[in-house]
Amino acid sequence: MIPEKKQAAVKQALQLTFGTNEFEDIRQLTVGLSSALIFRIVVQNKPYLLRVITRDDAMGDPAHYYTCMKPGAEAGLAPHIWYAGIEDRISITDFVEAKPFPINKARVMLPEILKRLHALPPFPFRVHYFDAIDGFIKTFREAKILPESMTAEMFQQYERIKAVYPRNTSDWVSCHNDLKPENMLFDGNKTWLVDWEAAFLNDRYLDLTVVANFAATNDGEEKKYLQTYFGKAPTEYQRARFFLMQQYLHIAYVCVFMKLGVTADKPVDLLSAKPGFREFNDDMWAGKIDLAFSEAKQLYAWAHLEQLTNNLHKKRYEESLKVVADIMPPDL
């Protein structure tokens, strides 16, 4: 189960950590899109999470990964770290026995967790997120995966958002950047953030928006969610910037997941019925959807396109563009 070339390193990590190089049980965990190999192991009658990084490029750099995960663990946001080896690219942490996370609890707990996450000492700068998304969008446009009639408005509005949305790094914070449901584990009492592979310095509104896709489903919930995060009622600017980030990510997710989801054996499906954005995200929250499959990636892209199309025709969209373009408050 553990790759042969990693078995000796795993044994050594176990020996250094627990005084034994054997585990009593091992089970591979396959949920999620991480390239790392993830295992639940039992050592001396206690479960742990064993993570074996397989990538050897810059984005798989364990030094960066551990640099972000360690302060998260010290702050009680990530599980306790027992071993973090840079050379062998292996980590061992507490294993969280996840329980169903009631969405009404999530709406209260998650903005508080994001506030604590974003208050951590600044993570290293790794990549300019907006530049990276620009690249994905350019590649998607050149691939012409969808008819122009479906994408013309999306790309036109992308340029409008890009023209006003702040892209400087002056107010960026420590972000997780991959807060999908399987990376926010509820143990029945508290929530743990796991899989810090994508963590780096970024715009706070990215984490806020990704979590809100699941936890803030209407205007009233959004206001309470942002109020909990900011510690007071959100300003006009904060709500406008949040709304524009939502549209920015809808566009990015259409491009990224449609490109990943269209394969030789799973061509783009233009005709069949598609789930709505709320339905799809509710099913993701309930653990009914695995984005590892091409069909799920395509459906996720369609759900974001539907929500984007609805939002672009709301009065709030034009108002948000104007507010963000005109206002530069001291506290972003």
Q: Strand arrangement, largest sheet?
A: 1-2-3-5-4
Strand proportion, as a percent range, falls in 5-15%
Output the CATH topology of the largest domain. Aminoglycoside 3'-phosphotransferase, Chain: A, domain 2
End-to-end separation: 47 Å
CA-atom Rg in angstroms: 21 Å
Task: Provide the domain count.
Answer: 2
Structure characterization notes:
Helix 6 crosses helix 8, helix 8 runs antiparallel to helix 10 and helix 8 (236-261) crosses helix 11. The chain folds into 2 domains: 23-94, Phosphorylase Kinase, domain 1, CATH 3.30.200.20; 103-326, Alpha-Beta Complex (Aminoglycoside 3'-phosphotransferase, Chain: A, domain 2), CATH 3.90.1200.10. The protein has helices at 4-18, 62-74, 103-118, 129-143, 148-164, 204-215, 219-230, 236-261, 277-285, 294-312, 315-326; strands at residues 25-29, 37-43, 46-52, 81-85, 90-94, 173-175, 184-186, 191-193, 200-202. A 5-stranded antiparallel beta sheet has the order 1-2-3-5-4, with helices on both faces. A two-stranded antiparallel sheet has the order 6-9. Strands 7-8 form a two-stranded antiparallel sheet. The protein contains 11 helices and 9 strands. Strand 2 (37-43) and strand 3 form a beta hairpin. The chain is globular.
